[in-house]
Amino acid sequence: MSNLTDMEIFARVVSAGSMSAAGREMNLSPAVVSKRIRRLEDKLGTRLLQRTTRQIALTESGQGFYERVIAIIASVEEAEAFVARGSAQARGVLKVAAPTSFGRLHIAPYLGKFLADNPDLSVNLDLEDSFVDIVGDGYDMAIRIAELSDSSLVARRLAPVHRILCASPDYLARHGEPTSITDLADNHVCLAAANQDPWRLVGPNGLENVRTLAPVRTNSSEVVRECLLAGVGVALRSTWDVGPELRDGKLKILLPQYRASKDVGLHAVYPSRRFLPAKVRVFIDFLAQLYGPHPYWDAGLDDWLTLPDQTPSEKLDRPLTQSNVRP
């Protein structure tokens, strides 16, 4: 390993656990390693390592610096590989943020295949339902289910998202089916997480808002789902979330002429189109191929998801095709 930078030596010391072990790996004497670390600390104006006779420990500044250094080294190695082989190979750590339920159901089960196809890559998948600051929090990309507004970020639409009103047969046996939006709002238990109130529904009369009211209030979409299955009330859910229950008859679609906005979609969001790392590109391509314009979670629901004509030539929510997938 020649022409080592001080940052590379620092990273190797941390991974090896001691200066002597790192020196053996790099064919450098412990004295040289110690001198290079001191030079780096002097340049930065802070202590990175707490040294004892047998081991080292990262300071708080050192921990933050190390996390960023290994990301820089991975990017440099990727750039060198691109030049050497004429194509970029995915390698390093891919840091991804995704919604909790979607990540658990539709990302985690497929990571094994993705990693088998990309053996030089590892994935750090963070699941949370709030929107993260991709750049500020150090993410390579995020998966978002939203109607995205213009921003400095780049978004690629991966799949359509169908959100429908539904309830369990047990709830409907006790309360009957709503016959209209007014009946739904006035006479039924409407379940929603705190950040999903009100419901914004598109129907024959355009956009309508429905305020939700239920004996259960929560900030968790998964709690809403469990209450829905338990017969507590009506909920507005995505087919990626309740597709199996709809097919099995555990849930029934209500007022099918009403949906959440068709502009809501599943998106991969990342900072820059121009400098797109190979690790981000291959993961986005993998998900796009996995989901597609007719995602597997909608299989068997075509008759329910295709609405009657609103006019002779228009449907409220026509299936997404390759021609209108946004990059």
From TrEMBL:
<dbReference type="InterPro" id="IPR005119">
    <property type="entry name" value="LysR_subst-bd"/>
</dbReference>
<dbReference type="InterPro" id="IPR000847">
    <property type="entry name" value="LysR_HTH_N"/>
</dbReference>
<dbReference type="Pfam" id="PF03466">
    <property type="entry name" value="LysR_substrate"/>
</dbReference>
<comment type="similarity">
    <text>Belongs to the LysR transcriptional regulatory family.</text>
</comment>
<keyword id="KW-0805">Transcription regulation</keyword>
<dbReference type="InterPro" id="IPR036388">
    <property type="entry name" value="WH-like_DNA-bd_sf"/>
</dbReference>
<dbReference type="Pfam" id="PF00126">
    <property type="entry name" value="HTH_1"/>
</dbReference>
<protein>
    <submittedName>
        <fullName>LysR family transcriptional regulator</fullName>
    </submittedName>
</protein>
<dbReference type="InterPro" id="IPR058163">
    <property type="entry name" value="LysR-type_TF_proteobact-type"/>
</dbReference>
<dbReference type="InterPro" id="IPR036390">
    <property type="entry name" value="WH_DNA-bd_sf"/>
</dbReference>
<feature type="domain" description="HTH lysR-type">
    <location>
        <begin position="1"/>
        <end position="59"/>
    </location>
</feature>
<keyword id="KW-0238">DNA-binding</keyword>
<keyword id="KW-0804">Transcription</keyword>
